[in-house]
Design a protein that fits this description.
This protein has 592 residues and is α/β, with parallel strands linked by helices. It contains 23 helices and ten strands. It has a six-stranded mixed sheet with strand order 6-7-8-3-9-10, with helices on both faces.
Length: 592
């Protein structure tokens, strides 16, 4: 058994009892079905020729009973197998989604959203038929084939050998067809992922705006049509792969009963009395029942080989290494909310911190030593690419340092539990994200148990309550895709209210006002100032107005600290900070 086959089989392990019940029903159904041809032989060779109506009644009654019993068993078997199959599908989808949630931010920065969506929707959806019905179909058909072969041998061994002579050739032919379809399916799923990525990117609100304003809508449509056309061609290739070979198999199955009649007729003409008319009719009845499950098994074999390409893609995601993991016995600084703030001082310390995004690439941070005292505000400034945002992300442990350590209250963030770290560090980014849900649901994403009064208090602190209250649906207003119904400043203040609701002791402000006009910036900055009160704040700066009152300003240059001090001290020093201030704020202090 291959490693992949063992992994697929392991998916069904939690449902062994139900599978056992399915197998039992299959065995009963197959056994009952094999009795009918023997009853038919007795009808043709004994009951009718001898005029025994009593025996005829019992034989026909037995046939009717078997038909009803197998129909009822079939319904129960189908229900059970589908329940198991859908549970396995659920487990597989949940496993992929949970694993993706555990991956670091680095994976998502280099992977298209549409590609991820395609793995969950198209690849897992593509194996549904195999998972929900193939296993039971295999067992059912194998059981039927074995029972039928035994019955055929009992009826007449010569006819049985004659009928089964070509079966090994059919199996070999089917495997070749399956390998061909597996290769095409792998290419087809790649195309589906490309198309899903194109749809996700071009049909989002941002994508539509970009396409229309750049006059590229027509070209995007042409690109989609090209991808769709290639996918359609691959679909045709997949469905036609080995079609002539399988048609030969089906034709042979159809011809075999006629050849059995010929073989039996020649044998009887030669004077043999061992083959009777009842035996021939019963045998061809069995043969008909044999050909369908064999044909089904051959097609299932193709489906399984085809689905292996899909399972390869699914397991590829499940095998992605989790770069950021939780310790076996992590440290818990607090449980969140006000109680956490009381227990956590909020000192953030960087000790010889080094970091690089690529193993062989240039370092983004190189030997940063910095202490942010509890309750103080430290601003980080520097040119684009100096490592400002990276420094903030390391505090929230969106990435792990490649050297040195980041500590909160003397504890390495790598030793903290994920829940404790999330409750301790709040991140407000310039890339505000709102779910396509109500304002209340977006706020409660930070704290699901928050009351309506707490929502209002958080919104007031972020200076957004009056706007929300003026809406017809108030806090039940649906924000739309990525919050498109609100301006940048309004979305930013909703995001700030969300962070207020979480109430973290340590706050990282990642250029939270960089994309706003001056008037909106003042409103948002006021909300941020309220949020920062009493918290340890690391402000990744963009505009001077956000950092003048910082307790300390740290200037990064090429991943290292170039200078540090208050606004006045750094201006007086006339160094790198003074040069940044003298330049254009939108240019000199922008970027990440």
């Amino acid at each position: 058994m291959s490693p992949q086959t063992r992994r697929i089989a392991a998916l069904f392990r939690p449902y062994r009892a139900r599978l056992g019940a399915v197998l039992g029903l299959i065995a009963i159904s197959a056994s009952l079905a094999m009795v009918t041809p023997f009853l038919l032989r007795e009808v043709l060779d004994t009951a009718i020729p001898e005029g025994d109506t009593t025996l005829l009644g019992w034989l026909v009654g037995g046939m009717v009973f078997i038909s009803i019993a197998t129909a009822v068993i079939s319904v129960g078997q189908t229900w059970l197998s589908n329940v198991v199959g859908q549970r396995v599908m659920h487990d597989l989808r949940a496993a992929v989604y949970r694993h993706l949630q555990r991956l670091s931010l680095a994976f998502f920065t280099r992977t298209r959203t549409g590609e991820v969506q395609s793995r969950i929707a198209n690849d897992i959806g593509g194996v549904q038929n195999v998972v929900t019905s193939t296993g039971t179909s295999i067992v059912s058909n194998v059981t039927t084939v074995l029972a039928t072969v035994v019955a055929m041998l009992l009826l007449d061994w010569r006819l049985a050998i004659f009928s089964l002579a070509l079966l090994p050739f059919f199996v070999w032919l089917t495997r070749r067809v399956g390998n061909e379809r597996k290769r095409i399916t792998s290419k087809k799923q790649g195309r589906m992922a490309d198309m899903s990525a194109l749809v996700a990117e071009s049909l989002s609100v941002s994508g539509i705006l970009l396409g229309k304003t750049m006059g590229r809508s027509g070209e995007l449509a042409q690109r989609f049509e090209a991808e769709s056309g290639q996918l359609a061609d691959l679909e045709v290739q997949s469905r036609m792969a080995g079609r002539w070979r399988m048609a030969t198999v089906q034709m042979s199955f159809s011809i075999m009963p006629a050849l059995v009649y010929l073989f039996a007729g020649l044998t009887m003409a030669a004077g043999s009395s061992t083959i009777t008319i009842g035996t021939v009719v019963a045998f061809t009845t069995l043969q008909t029942r044999l050909l369908f499950p064999i044909g089904s098994l051959l097609n299932i074999s193709i489906d399984i080989q085809t689905s292996r390409a899909l399972f390869d893609r699914i397991f590829e995601y499940l095998d992605l290494p989790v770069e950021i993991t939780e310790r076996a016995e992590p440290v818990v600084l607090g449980s969140g909310g006000g109680a956490a703030s009381a227990r956590i001082a909020g000192e953030v310390r960087f000790e010889d911190v080094r970091f690089r995004y690529e193993q062989e690439g240039l370092p983004t941070l190189d030997g940063v030593d910095l202490v942010v005292a509890p309750g103080t505000k430290t601003a980080i400034v520097g040119e684009t690419g100096s490592g400002k945002t990276t420094l903030g992300y390391l505090v929230a442990r969106l990435y792990d340092v490649t050297g040195g350590r980041v500590m909160i209250d003397g504890v390495d963030v790598r030793d903290l539990s994920f829940a404790s770290l999330a409750a301790t560090v709040g991140l407000v980014s310039q890339e505000t994200y709102l779910f396509h849900a109500t304002i209340a649901e977006n706020l409660r994403f930070a704290r699901p148990d928050a009351t309506d009064a707490q929502l209002v208090a958080a919104a007031r602190a972020a200076q957004i309550h009056e706007l929300i209250a003026s809406l017809p649906d108030g806090y039940d207003t649906v924000v739309g895709e990525r919050g498109y119904r609100f301006s940048g400043g309004e979305k930013q203040r909703i995001a700030i209210a969300r962070t207020v609701l979480r109430n973290p002791p340590v706050l990282v402000l990642d250029e939270a006002t960089s994309a706003l006009d001056s008037e909106t910036e003042r409103a948002v900055q006021d909300a941020l100032d309220r949020l920062a009160e009493g918290r340890t704040t690391i402000a990744i700066a963009h505009r001077l107005s956000t950092i003048r009152d910082a307790d300390e300003i740290v200037v990064l240059e090429r991943g290292a600290i170039a200078e540090r001090g208050t606004h006045e001290q750094l201006l007086a020093a006339g160094g790198r900070y003074a040069a940044l201030v003298a330049g254009s704020p939108s240019r000199a202090l922008a970027g990440t």
